[in-house]
Specification:
Chain lengths: 337, 375
């Protein structure tokens, strides 16, 4: 073979690979870290996020657990109490409800009730989100349950870069973190990107401006960020300039970036795929009306899932979920307000 | 003692028992120490009931009266590296844990009586600075898992603690305390099943006091013996006479030795009887949902009297010592300080004085420590 003088081809990585690299590197870095969940070892995870980790780190540090979400989370709390960092995988984030008590009463409150003696470095992560025909129990975004439980950080990356950097940040944070991954993004080719070869983190609590604009601010996270970007492209054709903010982190929330954008646009729509009533979009709107009312030229608005479960068959599913069209229509309405 | 600990149960327990019972190796001093710890647990309970009746305390007291032998007998065989996870009715466990090291030993690993009393009085000197009530305390440094109101909810944490310990080269065991009612919780099953799969050294103690608040055992489970739940996990299920501190010590030590050898978890059911209501708020109503004759019968075998009888048989208590201090199991209304060894009274008084002297937490603390600060 002839010696090559070509520059190395940049290898783009998908969202799932980014997550796997984060786990691998953190397990390498921290000997007191372990991973546990259903089918994460021999199988490598239902989606493959932990593929290969058990072969590398052994059955004691990559643990195949019984189908017992409460035990997965509760035992992680005990491990944290005794010096370890734990990644606890929910096979689907919907199943986190089976471990709900252990999260909100045990894990979330431990630091508080011990006045800081104990901290719980546990990351509960799992695939979330709709748009894939997962139906009622494989499509949820239940982040509001945990945003309403003081003591938990709640995050949701939308890009491979963020997925890796935020998972590493979460595992080093020292607080319990509920980590929402978007399963429809795991292998999405269009969002693959080159990742730094050096260690890096994306700090929790910082939003990203994904597109600059001057007429309306679209605030979102997870898969809906891409819907907002598509909507912004569509709006541009109509002469409307939309700014798109990816919150990335819900707790803590980066209000500063939201308010700075509204100072430019004076209009805002919060987009997320959870139901509207008591959803996180409502919290963002409340903060805006309380603290940034003077910046607004129109009432802050929401585009969310209808107050329904997520149905299975495609037309039904798309009917109840946020869409590019719904976002565009709402933006046009606000600009004309 | 309940009718449920009949001869068949005793026979089964006897079969599981090795040829030599661990308690037969206890020295006279150790036996007397066990006896004194029963008094200490009882005095703590009786004194707190009185303090509450005087209006000096807020919150609800969950009495350990008549169940002290379970706490004392189970804790007595532990090592300093072991973990415990007591619940609401086990408050003496928080300070009994390490009393074997000496009544005023600065190097003790259990909580001090001052810390526990500060918790009861809601003062800043308590672990967690009085941010949760009464028995909801614990200590990472002292290896006591913090209890919650979600019954059986700390068993998975105990399992996780031992998993982490084993991974780090340790050989600890963890004792969890649970009412028989909490065995109906899903988390009870999940946690023990998980511990059994990984052979984790977690001992689940079931304090079968016959009543889950206002519900009797036959409405809690179809099982006669709650130890039978162990069969479902493929682990040993032992039954102890919860009124006999030596029998509790024997059965728990058997389970502890089993666990420490890497053979995995066990369940130890201790048969006992709840002397009062679920909490002190419930004492009057308890007389309505519980037949008087059942209560009378359940209180007949007081753990202090049972222990005294045994010590006399062993020749460890003779003369005046055999008859002093609370010959009958007196309740809070009739017992006085004279019923208890002076060092027991002095020990608790020291804690109470510290609690009264300790300030209330500053109001601003209510909003602190939600998150670990990383800045």
């Amino acid at each position: 073979m002839a010696a090559t003088t070509e520059a190395p081809v940049a290898l783009k990585k998908n969202y799932l690979t980014a997550l796997k690299e984060a786990l691998d590197e953190e397990m390498q870095r921290n000997k007191l870290m372990l991973c546990q969940g259903e089918d994460i070892g021999r199988l490598g995870g239902a989606f493959g996020v932990t593929d290969g980790l058990q072969a590398k780190y052994g059955v004691d540090r990559v643990v195949d657990m019984p189908i017992s979400e409460a035990a997965i989370i509760g035992s992680a709390v005990g491990m944290a109490l005794n010096g370890m960092t734990v990644m606890a995988e929910m096979q689907f984030i919907d199943f986190i409800s089976c471990g709900f008590d252990q999260i909100v009463n045990m894990m979330a409150t431990y630091h508080y009730r011990t006045a800081g003696e104990v901290n719980i470095p546990v990351v509960v992560r799992g695939p979330a989100g709709a748009y894939g025909g997962g139906a009622l129990y494989h499509s949820q975004m239940n982040e509001a349950w945990f945003c309403n439980s003081p003591g938990l950080k709640v995050v949701c990356p939308s890009t491979p870069y963020d997925a890796k950097g935020m998972l590493k940040a979460a595992l080093r944070d020292g607080n319990p973190v509920i980590f929402y991954e978007i399963k429809e993004l795991y292998r999405k080719r269009e969002i693959e990107e080159e990742l730094p070869t050096d260690d890096y983190i994306v700090p929790l609590g910082k939003a990203a401006v994904r597109r600059e604009g001057t007429d309306v601010t679209l605030v979102s996270y997870g898969q809906n960020v891409y819907h907002c970007l598509e909507a912004a492209a569509e709006l541009e054709k109509q002469g409307i300039s939309a700014e798109v903010i990816d919150l990335r982190s819900l707790v803590p929330l980066d209000e500063e970036t939201i308010f700075a954008s509204i100072a430019k646009t004076s209009r805002v729509i919060v987009v997320n795929e959870a139901p509207m009533t008591c959803g996180f979009a409502g919290e963002v709107v409340a903060r805006i009306t309380t603290k940034a009312f003077h910046l607004l030229d129109a009432p802050p608005s929401r585009v969310t899932r209808m107050d329904t479960p997520v149905p299975w068959v495609k037309p039904l599913e798309l009917h109840v979920l946020p869409s590019v069209e719904k976002i565009v229509n709402e933006a046009v309405r606000l600009v004309r307000f | 003692m309940s009718a449920k600990s009949g001869s068949a149960t005793a026979e089964r327990a006897e079969q599981r028992q090795g040829s030599r019972r661990p308690s037969e190796s206890l020295t006279r001093e150790e036996c007397l120490e066990l006896f004194k710890q029963l008094y200490l647990a009882r005095y703590f309970d009786i004194r707190l009931i009185k303090e509450k009746k005087r209006g000096r305390l807020r919150g609800t007291l969950y009495s350990s009266h008549n169940q002290e032998a379970i706490l004392v007998g189970s804790l007595f065989g532990l090592q300093p590296t072991d973990w415990i996870s007591p619940i609401h009715r086990d408050m003496p466990a928080f300070f009994l844990k390490d009393i074997r090291a000496g009544w005023d030993n600065d190097n003790r690993i259990g909580m001090t009586i001052e810390e526990v009393c500060c918790q009861v009085w809601g003062k800043v000197g308590s672990p967690g600075r009085a941010r949760d009530n009464w028995s909801h305390i614990g200590s990472k440094a002292k290896k006591i898992i913090h209890s919650t109101s979600m019954l059986a909810g700390t068993i998975p944490a105990a399992a996780g603690v031992t998993y982490a310990d084993r991974l780090q080269g340790g050989n600890c065991v963890a004792l969890t305390y649970n009412g028989e009612g909490s065995t109906a919780q899903g988390i009870f099953h999940e946690a023990i099943n998980y511990a059994a799969v990984h052979k984790l050294p977690v001992i689940t103690i079931i304090e079968n006091n016959q009543w889950a608040y206002g519900t009797p055992t036959d409405l809690e489970s179809p099982l006669e013996d709650f130890a039978d739940r162990a069969k479902g996990y493929g682990i040993p299920g032992l039954i102890a006479d919860g009124q006999d501190v030596f029998d509790v010590y024997d059965k728990v030590m058997e389970a502890v030795n089993h666990a420490r050898e890497g053979k995995g978890p066990a369940i130890v059911e201790c048969k006992t009887f709840r002397a009062y209501g679920h909490g002190d708020h419930d004492d009057d109503r308890a007389q309505k949902y519980r037949p008087a004759e059942e209560v009378e019968k359940g209180r007949q075998r007081d753990p202090i009297a049972v222990c005294r009888k045994r010590l006399i048989e062993l020749g460890h208590l003779t003369g005046d010592a055999a008859t002093s201090f609370m010959a009958e199991g007196k309740g809070a209304s009739e017992a006085t300080n004279d019923d208890f060894p002076p060092e027991v009274v002095a020990y608790l008084n020291k804690g109470i004085e510290a609690a009264i002297a300790s300030p209330l937490p500053a109001a601003e603390e209510g909003a602190m420590w939600v998150f670990k600060e990383n800045n």
